[in-house]
Amino acid sequence: MQVVKIIHDDFDLVIECNNFESTFNKAKKKQSQIYNSTSYTVNEGNISIYDFDSKVVENINIKNSYPVFFENKEYFIGINLKNNSIENPKISSRIKELEEKFFFRKEIQFLAGTINFGNDLGKSDLILSYSLNSTIKRIKFEFEVFPTKLDYKNDYLKIIKDIEENYPYLVLDFLKKTYSSFNTGYAPNTDLIWWQVFGGLYKDFINSTNLILSKPHSRITTIVKYTTADKVKNWSPKLEEEYFQNKKNSSKKYRTENKVLTTNTIENQFFKFAIVNTTERYKRVKKYIESRYSKSISPSFKIEINAIEKELENLKMNPFFKSIDNFNGLRQESLVLQKATGYSTLYRSWIMLNSGLKFLDGIQKIETKNIAELYQIWCFLEIKSILQKLLNKDKPDDVELAEIQVDDFVFKIERGVKSKVSFKDKNGDIIDLYHDFSYNLRENDENLSYTIPQRPDIVLRISRRDLIENYKMTYLFDAKYRLASDDKENSPELPPDDAINQMHRYRDAIYFTNKESEKPEKEVIGAYVLFPGSGDIDSIKDYNYSKSINKINIGAFPLVPNNNQNKELLEEHLTKIIGLNTEKVISDISPYRQNKYLGNNPIVLLGFVPSSEHSKCFETDIEPFYYTGIKKPSKFGFENLKYFAPYEKDKGVKEYFEIISYEIVPRNQIKNSPKARKGDVSDRLLIYLGKRVIISGGNYFKISDGKIGQNPYRYSDLFNLRNIENEKIKVLNFNQ
């Protein structure tokens, strides 16, 4: 159906789009003010847009209207030329790919092509250029491209602002079909910013330059000369008296003053400096664009930027500047630069060119990255913000953001160069959040993929201290600015199927290499898609992508700016992840078919140590051991007993050991033990010890239940040893 029509004396331009009303209705759900959210302009001709009542294009209010251009929609553009004298008609664009999509059939005077804005949102234009009676005409149609998955005026702006606060200028890009508007600000000025601002100021800059050259500012100034008496033209009484006193000295020189009108003023010196400096910077940036984007820019754009360079060069070489001195700075404010015709525009343009940008809606047309890329970065920053809130932190404890700036012109985060923010929880846990973490095939890496590299968008890694030393739990997030329902009318907003499948592949492909184990171990506990969905919480919880999170820890969360209700689902899950203890997390991992994972909180035997001599058996780093008295532990040798903690007399426990093995031996065969008795052949339990772990800084802790010694053996578990409450180790009522 037709959505736009432009009637001009020379042509009729028609823009068509399939399933337009369906797309509009999707966008309408996101934007309450959609019916008066945009406007359309054309420098020549009359615009009509689609009317929902009459179902045809109408001359309705285009200054306060609704959008007809949307992301990822194909638009057909047909231009019927009315005058056979029109030559070389074309759609002009800096982007070669866009120009090449249009073709001209001369026999019927018809220019046509298609355009799809993809994930580029914001303001855009369509420029029709042609020659008529030796005059080049450029008809410029301006409009805005809206999203169907976000509120354009609020969500999109928040994404840009949130990213800019953390990654200055990362939202900027080059050779996009759309742009956003920004104010001039006071910040570092890069070539990319300078170039894009210059594009908006160029005409004003040239016009003000021509105005100045046609009527340059001049000023009466006094010229002082020292000359002999025969060359003095105007004799003042003071000079006559000086001459009378020195008339016998014919070589005497006299000081004379003459008032003349000059253009060599501070304002014209600034004018010269601005022209020369702008020309040189333009040439440098133009050369960079031509070399880096040679395959992407269109032939017409090359002609345009060459013409601008030539015009600037001609201005720089103007004879007027030969009599103008070099500029050495403004010593005081100049009313000429602030108010005079031509000078004030030039001065304002100069300030704007060298001031950088503020990321507010303003007047500068700046191209930005596509929304899919911005959404991914924003999701990382949003999770960071949620973690700060949950951990009651004003900011992360450590920040390593991987902002990469290439040649002062291109801003991007290179793939594989990860950003990282870290938080330290009050319980000692370390929470690391990564953006663009890369799992490669390098076998010396602790985490890797054995098949192909895996690059999830966001990685959350929690280093636990509650049970196993530095046990790391890894959760992955992929941000997808897509919906499974993008092409389905009146369907629910679901995450794309392929994105969910990717979460399963991540968990199956990423491994942890344990040096103490022959086989690699699975690394990822949970994996989730973040997508721009909506809906009430009860409905979302009823979808499979939400219910699967509790079952298998794979699923999806809707996440868009300014929707705090849906964000609560992600907040609740992150709260759960942070609050779970290691035993609970591990026990929730689905086992292989018909297998059952063993308990993940091992039992610890607490054994009485009656003397400092006895403690020497395990204080050595070489083959430490412990042996019992005649009375042995009531329960020993079962599979979940993994650790031993010596309880020193009158002190308590300060450490625990991994149990390597054990055996029953006669007392007289225990070597390197104190007070060995040659004739004592009574049985003892001999426990061979391995890795030693000091608890809570090496302080001693007693048990919570009675005194050890009367009953020389008690049982606890690893969690209780690593999480001591009220300065006492909790013992178990153990019935093994």
Write the layout of secondary structure elements.
Layout lengths: L1 E6 L3 E6 L3 H11 L10 E2 L3 E5 L6 E2 L10 E2 L3 E8 L5 E6 L3 H4 L2 E4 L4 E7 L5 E11 L2 E12 L5 H15 L13 E5 L6 H24 L4 E10 L8 H9 L7 E10 L3 H27 L6 H18 L18 H5 L3 H11 L3 E2 L5 E3 L4 H20 L7 E3 L3 E3 L3 E3 L6 E6 L5 E6 L11 E3 L8 E7 L6 E9 L17 H13 E3 L8 E2 L1 E8 L5 H5 L2 H9 L1 E5 L5 H16 L2 H6 L15 E7 L2 H8 L5 E3 L13 E8 L6 E12 L16 E12 L7 E2 L9 E5 H5 L5 E2 L7
Parallel strand pairs: 6-12, 25-28, 28-29, 30-32, 35-37
Antiparallel strand pairs: 1-2, 1-4, 2-7, 3-12, 4-5, 7-10, 8-11, 9-10, 11-12, 13-16, 13-17, 14-15, 18-21, 19-20, 21-22, 22-24, 23-26, 24-25, 26-27, 30-36, 31-34, 32-33, 33-34
Short description:
This protein has 736 residues and is an alpha+beta fold. It is built from 17 helices and 37 strands.
Biggest sheet layout: 7 strands, antiparallel
Provide mean pLDDT, rounded.
Answer: 85
For the termini, the CA-CA separation is: 77 Å
DSSP strand count: 37
Overall SS class: alpha+beta
Radius of gyration: 39 Å
**Helix content bin:** 25-40%
How many domain regions?
Answer: 5
The low-confidence runs, each spanning 5 or more residues with pLDDT under 50, are none
Please work out how many helical segments DSSP would assign.
Answer: 17
Question: Which shape, going by the Cα principal axes?
Answer: flat
Please list the strands of the largest sheet in the order they lie side by side.
Answer: 5-4-1-2-7-10-9
How much beta, percentage-wise?
25-35%
